[in-house]
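Homework help board

Subject: predicted structure for assignment chain

Our instructor gave us this sequence and asked us to write out the predicted structure in token form, then describe one feature. I got the tokens but I'm not sure how to describe them. Can anyone check?
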Amino acid sequence: MTEKSSGDNRKDYIEEELFIMSKTLIASVWWTKEMGERLKILRGEESMASLAKRAGCSYQSIQHLERGEYTVDERKGLKPTVSWEKLEAICKALDISVEDFLQVQLVKNPKKVIQTG
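My token output:
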């Protein structure tokens, strides 16, 4: 997204480039501290261990995601990521869609109708 400041402490957004592609092509998603905070809020009073069990991942995975502690990736200069499969499993356990968790809009491509003769 390209920003332009208009001098009065207001930012005008000029352009944003979007890709629309099949979510089956997504292997992983960059993980942010804001996403970790959102995960913690959605987990509520449920323990990390309980959520991890229902999502089919380790307690440590939930802990690292909530806290944003991916120091190995950060030391390598990489942005922390979470696999699409793990994100789907966690969202399913939380009863929220991945799209709602990521706060993005799902665009559905209409299916092609094939005429038979």
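Reply (TA_rk): Your tokens look well-formed. For the description, you could write something like this. The beta strands are 2-5, 11-15, 28-30, 81-83. That's the kind of observation they're looking for.
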